[in-house]
């Protein structure tokens, strides 16, 4: 069994048996373990990438001129366009492809909704304060840092017991309650960074609260997720969909969490954009008609058993993962596959799926996988894909009394035995007068089917039956008062509360990770010319973004600002505008090599350059970002060339085969030409 | 002068003189008055249109299962798609066309920003409460309703003085302060709808307030507009734009106003979507290079003088309006023209521009025009286009001390006379010891250029000059201590605070009005067949939305669900998905005529129907929504046909000329075929 690496045979047999029970499969796929780096090593260091972003105004702290507000960022023009493109891709990849019902719901939400969903009671972090300064900390993070610091301190000598206790805290802090955290603080005598005592831990709700309306009586919150807004609309969507199941609702919008410790970059913000899908289905049928499309897709999975055994993630096809019951059902796996393809289309390189461990999942969740992307801070949860069962619709239905069910029509009508209760109201009224209603209610609603049957057997003998009506009233029921008949009815279907699969996308986080993953630094001009002894002064950053999400698809550059060149530039720019291709013109007096470098920094995949030759023979050059190669193309063919390249209907290789290579390109590529 | 209707010759001469001063034009354009309806008469009544919207789930009250929250609405799938399409059109019409810098800023805003902008002090409504029930009213609305009710009551007899007083209140209530409103309540003895006394009026701030961060010390608001977020980023955008002026920032997003009296429909909501542009320019140069593109566009204008004279709006070209100084400057007029074209592209039929009267405008605004759309409630402000001067950037700069200027390079360097102040620190230090710094400061910064010149004249004689330093210290300045030299410097430019033109779009309001304006009810089937005596039972609603914003461009219908039909349907649907054309399939068993009617209700411009003929000769029918005509088209040509029709590259007439008319269409069109 050499192919099964990193897992003992015994464990495998146990798991196989366990999975076997669920799916009745016995053949076990080969486990293909996958080494994952713990952190992304960003070219030139994380700071280099962040510097490029800051310098080129991808994003910056909001309200910076007022000193900024933690956890709030603005997007500049490049990031705004990337964000819009990522959402458009999301819409075509998910909404259009699956005929989902995209709706738009509000950020402001009345308190009642979040009481039902459990957010008012449970959406909180454990916090503590420095008793002197009042500074606040998220206690789980603070404890984790404390443990890591002591465990990694080479100067600290500690006994085995303390070391083991610290390790235990580090591993379990994410699931500790506030009492246990308080005990930990006491046990280790933990103090604030300033050396002061800490206040007893308390829970802080992460939702922003406000008042709706002038009376100030309606408490409201800003939504911390989009899901509840979609659940509110379940019945409307179900009707709009003609009562057909399954179907999915989708929404895109802002969400808000009053984070105690917002992180730098776009990783943990107080206001951020989510895109969420709620796929409603029959809990008895979690197959998906299109699962076949992704069945053979091989993806990196980190199931909970591997995590618990501190073993590496593995490569499996989604079909294998479903067959052995590792992923709970085909619909969940289908969405994992679609999410994987979406992330790849955005340009993500390092993606894996981590299964939630049992103690991480909400009690109602059946199975949950996070799509994680590698970034400089480690593996980051970017998309959560959860089977939330029927929980949400049920709690809202319970609290509002509103019907939140769908109706399933049986393939064939089914027979159902039931009791018909024929009461003689006149006889009952005459016998019981003012108590008649209570007696009637008892006969019609309180008696079980079995009790009816028993009573009828007695009545059939002609005798009366003594019955105790609700409230303790004892009455005699005579045969003339009631007749219970056993009947068989044809039933065509049943109402059920749908089960929900929820893929939830943190768009900002995804884009942050993609930016880190596609960032690289081009060999400097000198190094590229062979003189590697020279230090490369001229670090040129490139974002290798796919054309689909790049802010601008093409930069239009006049080689120089001259009268025989600028009319061509304006003409080409107008043609791009007319065809809806996002372009930018760089007609600054900066040398062309530098302008190419600045274009690369924005992730623009192509440059079109107008030079004196354009005026002579009507050709321009097209430059490809990553190879720095250029071809000469007739002006009239520029728009279709860029269009097909961006749509990936044509590759750069095809263009090179069709058009002559531009000679100066090799030199310009490394930025020598000034 | 018969062409000048509705305005006296005297008034015209006065205005001409007044405008002449501003623009030095003497020829007056012909005034072309325009009768505007006061309210839109919606086909079948407003309720019919709202019923259709509700029935087809265009939008519905948010949190309806919890009883709803006033002023919060959710968009269903159709409206969500229309909204996205309207924003995409906005982006290509404005952002792409003008190379604007679109950015994305946060809803959460710290208090300081809105103190600077004046929102904390001034963004409020006057309110009152029923003293018994605590029910709240917006007092201006309540007073207006009170006046209208009494003035229109045929049973009430009132003297001329009271009538005139009520009329006066009705007209001026929008600009009354709370004292005057209180006096009005007292004068007329106005009580609550329940007949109780009213509390004294008070101001209620319309911004939603919250706390940012766990310490609860940072007060924050949800933005009531996007403008401030754009102003925060001015300097970043200016740098990103390479320091070039003019340029525009743009943003799209949610805004929030805690309205006291939210209205039904989408007219006045508590959470709504805005799209805003801030065009930054040199206050000395408000020309626009592309003004020529809209100069000859004739638009309905309602200038303030016409309003004050209770005269009709007029038709003028934007060129005429600028030439006579009616619209303040070409950039403002350019944006009015672009806004007009955008609204027309969305399908708006009734549009006019109303100029703000002097008492409506903010003190800093130079000129302001609202694009109004006609709806069942009257003319509704949907886009505000204001020249806000330099106000916003100046207040933020004043409060933060941050530079918010742009730099203007003069065409030619200009000479500027200035004084160079050469101080001998050693001599000053020796003479004044501890006071030396104060003396130095006086010489270098406190003396004006003229004072320096006078002082130098005395010093040139060799005498000392007595000077009074800040704080009252008297000192003698000797010739050896200082020398003031008059120098002439070449100055290449100057820093200035840009002026701002702000077009601000209420997207929800625009769409609401467009829906009302394009809604119509088709002649019933019977009436269309000539039997007009029959009442039309079968009212068929149509939204004549342009393809550009319709939620679905095409509905794909199998004539019947059969094995020789469904494969074609799936194939055509897949082709639409592949080409990114939003489509929907209606394969319910409902008769085709009914399905067409349902499609019309959603505003879908085209239907493709697969029938048994498709399987025989490979053709399908394409149906056009408004004419109900159908042509037969080969299946392979369906996608390009729909594509070019939607892009308006081809008209329906062209298709009719090219392809045979479908015979059954005339009957199906009116829904007879069952």
How would you characterize the overall build of this protein?
Chains A, B: Residues 207-535 form the Aminoacyl-transfer RNA synthetases class-II family profile domain. Chains A, B: Its EC number is 6.1.1.14. Chains A, B: It is an enzyme of class 6 (ligase). In chain A, the strands form eight sheets. The first copy, chain A, has a ten-stranded mixed beta sheet with strand order 1-14-13-15-16-17-22-12-11-4, with helices on both faces. A five-stranded mixed beta sheet of chain A has the order 26-25-27-28-29, with helices on both faces. In chain A, strand 19 and strand 20 form a beta hairpin. With 674 residues, the first copy, chain A, is of the alpha+beta class. Chain A starts with 8 loop residues before the first helix and ends in a 5-residue tail after the last helix. In chain A, helix 6 (139-152) packs antiparallel against helix 7 and helix 15 packs across helix 16. Chain A has 25 helices and 29 strands. Mean pLDDT of chain A is 88; it is low at 1-26, 525-536 and 665-674. Chain A folds into four domains: 40-48 and 77-106 and 224-393 and 502-506, BirA Bifunctional Protein, domain 2 (2-Layer Sandwich), CATH 3.30.930.10; 124-205, Herpes Virus-1 (2-Layer Sandwich); 408-495, no CATH class; 536-669, Rossmann fold (3-Layer(aba) Sandwich), CATH 3.40.50.800. Chains A and B meet through strand 3, helix 3, strand 4, strand 5 and strand 9 of A and strand 3, helix 3, strand 4, strand 5 and strand 9 of B.
